[in-house]
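Intended use. Records like the one below are meant for learning the mapping from a protein sequence to its folded structure. Do not use them to infer anything beyond what is encoded.
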Amino acid sequence: MMKPGSVFLLIMFLVIGCGLFVRAEEPALPEGLGSFEADRTREPELPAGLGDSADSGEPARDTREEPGLPAGLEGGNGREPALPSGLSPDEDRASGQKTGGQASDWSELFGLPLHGFLEGRLGPRLQSDPVQSKEATLGETRLQLETEKFWDAGSFDLTADIVLDGITEEAAFDLRRARYTFSPLPSVDIRAGRQVLSWGTGDLLFINDLFPKDWVSFLSGRDVEYLKAPGDAVRLGWFNDLFNLNLVYTPKFDPDRFVDGERLSYWNPALGRIAGEDNQIQTKEPDDWFDDDEIALRMYRNISGYELALYAYSGYWKSPAGQDPDSGKFLFPKLNVYGASLQGTIGPGIGNIEFGFYDSREDRAGDDPFLNNSELHLLIGYEQELATEFTGSIQYYLERLQDYNEYREALPPGSEARDENRHLLTLRLTKLLLNQDLTLSLFTFYSPSDQDVYFRPKASYELSDAWTVVTGGNLFMGKEDQTFFGQFENNSNWYLGLRYSF
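Structure written out for the chain above:
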């Protein structure tokens, strides 16, 4: 029997061959039918920082590229740009990505419309990693299928991925979306089931977005749509003239898909070194239905063209934020978050500001060395068109540790202390070329306090309405191994992908 890795290589050769044949034989299809990211970026008036919500509860927002780094990975936040207000919630695809091409007669299954894509991706490492046995961070063939059904009483939509993973040498099934949507009242809509949720104003930086993220996918070279992990929840939206309200209830804690050493190496503070397959993170997760639940709330309204939003969250740190000294297992302590955001036009571009107070409920005094202290997060961003089909955006992000003196005094002897303030700057540049078929982008994260950097270059070209080829990288550099980006230096990778959308 062929291993999944061998199947992946065979399919990749077939897909690439078909792609070259299609490119040679078929004229390019009309603009706007190509890859999700190119479509999104083609509308310069829709800034990157307006929220990437595959399902934000407000009019769906389109996601741009990728996050400012993970809030749950012992450091920064990461978030994709949000989509502009005004889009219908049903315009987002299961992944938040548009699929090229139009449904044809054969694109139906049991009378239901069938869309999706077939994609192959390779992501070799740029340097060897002594704690990882694989010479790549990514090697997979992915088939995504999505369908939907409408009734007078509501609608149901389903999206699922089937993956042949050459790194784990296993086949996997990832249910991205299976939700029912209905409106019991004209001003109320409810979505229940598996879904991708997002809100906030950051471009790949997340403060008040406490919905699950997939940092492994993001850092290893998968499409940015997979940064947003699915969760099981009920979302209620109430819309009126005074304000709009989104309430999300998750009956059982949905953690991030965080870096645990299986595919990517990381800094292990307990070992005092970089760890990987040899020391994968073991966790103790809250997993009781209706007891270990989460509640997220957003109230927002438009005031003279500016969107003001208030946020509240009650649940747990989404990635490990503590450790049990007896068992050594990593923990997800209880967490409340309170925040606000404001975004709107400033001069020729769009600006945003967002903050959130992270109330670490199990260590409010800040004197438990095995649990995260409370934190204050602040984000300021601005984006504008710099030239024809060339846009740029910048962001400043601050993560301030609360009760810092108590934290320092409680540290065990010999432990490395965090900085009281972590500063992060981001820069995004996006250029459209060749009649908007070619999209070039660069997203850079730089921390002057940690002295580390993360580059995300990317090029995407639409061979036709259905075929898209993409290449890019995840490049990490840092002065110290224990800093947020520095810990991933051996995970630096370059990826190549080919997608057929139908």
